[in-house]
Amino acid sequence: MNVFGSSDEHQPVTWVRGYPIYAAHLVVGIFVASMIATSVLMAIGATSILGWLRFSSEAVLRGEVWRILSYGLVNPPSLWFAVDMLMIVWFGRELERFFGRPTFVALFACLYVLSPVVLTLIGLRQPTSLNGETGAFALFIAFATLYPNAMMMFNLLAKWVALILVGLYSLMALSNRDLVGLITLWSTIGFAFAFVRHQQGHFRLPSFRLNRNTPKLRVLPDLDRKQVAVPRDTSMAEVDALLDKIAKSGIASLTAKERARLDAARDDLLKKPGRR
Question: Residue 171: which domain range?
Answer without folding.
Answer: 8-199
